Amino acid sequence: MRKLAGFGAALVLGTALATGTVAPALAEGETADTVVATVNGTNITLGQVIALGQRLPQQYQNMPDDALFNGIVDQLVQQTALAQSLNGKLTKADEINLENNRTGYLAGNVIQAAAAAAVTDEALQKAYDAKYASVTPGTEYHAAHILVADEAKAKDLKAQIDGGADFAELAKANSSDGSAANGGDLGWFGVGMMVKPFEDAVVKLQPGQVSDPVQTQFGWHIIKLDETRPAPVPTLDEVKAELANELQTQAVEAKVKEITDAAKIEKVQGIDPKLLRDQNLIAN
Are 79 and 9 in contact (CB under 8 A)? Predict the structure, then answer.
């Protein structure tokens, strides 16, 4: 499967698309066992083509059906021929990796099923209500600032503002960041969106007030709070993806715990962890 998603897949599927070969016409009533090709007597079935096609990256899903069909068949033919060339002579590593892949695939199916079943309209609404129904709206702030490199400059600017100088004009002339062109205007922001010393100063201001110089890792700020407003509680649609992810995570964790708790598990003690790196144990 990894090879299909990589260079091998691009070569085979890309060739099929470029040549425009046509998929063979199959009679009505095909099943997953319908044979689409044979390699030295080994059948390749329609079911194999469908299963492999479903797992291809999106870039291949957008290909025309005939090109995609032929590309997948060609890939399966090549893989089958290459596998046959081993004449059944598998190393211990081959056998172990095949078993690990089988186990991982089956375990992944269980996890995917648990995740899919967890996300329903009812579950999403319940999760939304639990998280947001009783939330007290926070506060958003609309502020401007003047950013300079040293404290002395910041104190001088604050004295000019206290003396009646226009904040926006001083910001345009002195601020070192991109907000200078807009008179230092930073727009609306909520708690957690600014570095803490800046945020701590803002929340203490009343609309119209200007702070004393505040130091952050960016320099020295003079901050003017223009206005505040209640932060809106997000709608269900706005947080649906986030909630779905949380529901799926919870469901998968619960499923893994349920199944492993019910299993009889015995771990052998005393195995030297350094053996993990001994490739010779599975080389033959």
Answer: no
Within the chain, residue ranges assigned H as helices are 7-19, 46-54, 58-61, 65-84, 92-118, 121-132, 151-162, 167-174, 196-203, 236-262
Q: What is the pTM of this model?
A: 0.65
> Residues 48-77: what's their mean pLDDT?
94
Return the pLDDT at 69.
97
How many residues would you count in the chain?
A: 284
Q: How confident is residue 91, by pLDDT bands cut at 50, 70 and 90?
A: very high
The rounded distance, in Å, linking the Cα atoms of 277 and 159 is 68
Average pLDDT value over all residues in the chain? 90
Q: What is the per-residue pLDDT for 5?
A: 40
Write down all domains in the chain, each with its CATH number in brackets: 1-25+32-86 (no CATH), 95-135+235-252 (no CATH), 139-230 (3.10.50.40)
Beta partners for residue 134, in sequence order: none
One-letter amino acid at 251 equals A
3-state DSSP assignment of residue 272: coil
Strand order in the sheet with 219-230: 185-190, 139-148, 219-230, 214-216
Helices 236-262 and 92-118: crossing angle in degrees, nearest 10, is 130
User: Which structure tokens are listed for 274?
Assistant: 């350094």
**Residue 135: what pLDDT?**
84
From 185, 179, 175, 170, select the one nearest 220 (Cα to Cα). Answer: 175
Strand partners, 38: 43
Q: Is the pLDDT of residue 283 over 90?
A: no
pLDDT recorded at residue 14: 45
| Residues 151, 153, 159, 165, CA torsion sign | negative
- Which amino acid appears at position 269 of this protein? Q
Place of tokens 């996300």: 119
